[in-house]
Backbone:
């Protein structure tokens, strides 16, 4: 499969990510036919009205028919079931990918449920927000954001190249790693922050929170994300997330000790370290034009 | 002291908060004379040029002369020294307050260093950002934000009323509590989030962070705040902050256990709880018009 030959894409699940993908594809590949699957009538109607897809189907077997590229964009907890459903209807040589936030499980499911005549390579386009649904779909959601693709050792080079070029065309920066390493990294930079935001809210008193400022609100923003989706992410990457939490607990205990000992040098060192490390990150992201307004 | 009689204010320290206060005062009380203190020539010049104050002085004794209200707006670590310096120059009957983020220590220093002829009541206007300096001063910085005032049992009712009306006139919502209770609450809703943001950055790998999305950036935004200021805040509220960290560690251990046990019901319950609790907070803040754009 080569990118220039792509003329038929199927998007399975038309929420924020699937819908935005439909809009982005239309912007870059105006001639590619976009079929979509949603089990909800209202979503299919909205998606068609908004021009997010060209055709909407209530079954995956209909939606994947004739598609050269199938993108699973539904919650990760639905992947196994959807793969089983689509297996017989997929075109030989079809490339299947997904937009799930963990990669070990989707790759495992694909090996188990998808036929040998198709190729699966996991993708993780790191875009989105705490908002959900096709109503929030935007053609520029992926612009400048990172996409990690996770081919296994058995992936064909030409297919890796195709998928890489596809996400690049959508406007993303590509990184490539193994499913295992992906999940280890994401546990630290995504699943852990979610756990911390959730835990901070759960440990706070509702009355006292009312007095909070912008700092608290920003620090906890992602705790407003969809719980079902995040349950699947955290459970699907449980061991790595648990390990990442362990590192945080150890460091928090060191902060506690410094506070208890009145060790203001240690506290200042930690504050300085975090400030300069984060500022460097922001500078790099600005240089790469990854931040809004940059 | 009554608000209608106020015609001379002294702002000690002309950074983001002091500068914004100067601009806000001018908006609400255009006839009140604003004198300011900064030990830095460049800050005094900038403040005068930007109309943040009417007169700038390099010593606090000059700056507080004739003032009916003195507002300490420098970093909390400088308060004790500045109080000692201003003690003899303060007008009898003058009201002294501050904008520091902890309240037990400023109240203790005031009792120790300020003369009996003046009255000190601590204030904590909860506005600001990770930015610093008079360059970022804005007349609307305090609009709609909370200000906690912390009179002790010895405060005169008329003085409490005066201070309350002053911050209200500046555009703030007032809460009133004891210095002790203030510091306990702030440990949880402000100092703890800062520790978590700092700790998350310090536990992250610089290379891996480059892959992070908006969630990580928001969760860690406050870690870019000024380290010296935050050292003073955390050390000045060490016991409460340590206790707040302890609550977080206990809850993180429960999350770890749920992940280890594959207890997805427990994880979902925590995610649901945090989402609805935070969404309620946002709704209340929107209702109170405390959020930008609301």
Residues:
């Amino acid at each position: 499969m080569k990118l220039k030959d792509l003329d038929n894409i199927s998007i399975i699940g038309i929420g924020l990510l699937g819908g935005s993908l439909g809009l982005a594809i239309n912007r870059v590949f105006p001639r590619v036919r976009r079929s979509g699957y949603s089990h909800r009538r209202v979503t299919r109607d909205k998606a068609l009205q908004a021009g997010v897809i060209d055709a909407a189907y209530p079954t995956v077997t209909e939606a994947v028919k004739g598609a050269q590229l199938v993108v699973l964009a539904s919650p990760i907890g639905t992947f196994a079931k959807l793969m089983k459903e689509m297996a017989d209807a997929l075109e030989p040589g079809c490339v299947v990918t997904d937009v799930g936030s963990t990669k070990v499980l989707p790759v495992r499911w694909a090996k188990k449920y998808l036929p040998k005549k198709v190729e699966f390579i996991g993708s993780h386009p790191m875009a989105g927000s705490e908002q959900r649904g096709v109503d929030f779909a935007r053609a520029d959601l992926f612009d400048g954001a990172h996409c990690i693709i996770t081919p296994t050792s058995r992936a064909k080079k030409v297919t890796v190249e195709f998928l890489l070029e596809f996400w690049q065309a959508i406007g993303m920066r590509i990184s490539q790693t193994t499913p295992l390493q992906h999940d280890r990294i994401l546990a630290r930079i995504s699943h852990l922050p979610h756990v911390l935001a959730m835990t901070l809210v759960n440990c706070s008193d509702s009355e006292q929170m009312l007095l909070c400022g912008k700092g608290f609100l920003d620090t906890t923003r992602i705790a407003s994300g969809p719980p079902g989706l995040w349950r699947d992410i955290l459970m699907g990457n449980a061991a790595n997330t648990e390990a990442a939490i362990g590192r945080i607990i150890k460091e928090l205990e060191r902060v506690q000790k410094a506070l208890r000992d009145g060790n203001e040098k240690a506290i200042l060192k930690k504050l300085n370290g975090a400030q300069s490390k984060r500022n460097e990150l922001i500078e790099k992201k600005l240089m790469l034009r990854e931040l809004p307004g940059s």
In short: Chain A touches chain B through 88 residues (CB under 8 Å). The mean pLDDT of chain A is 95.
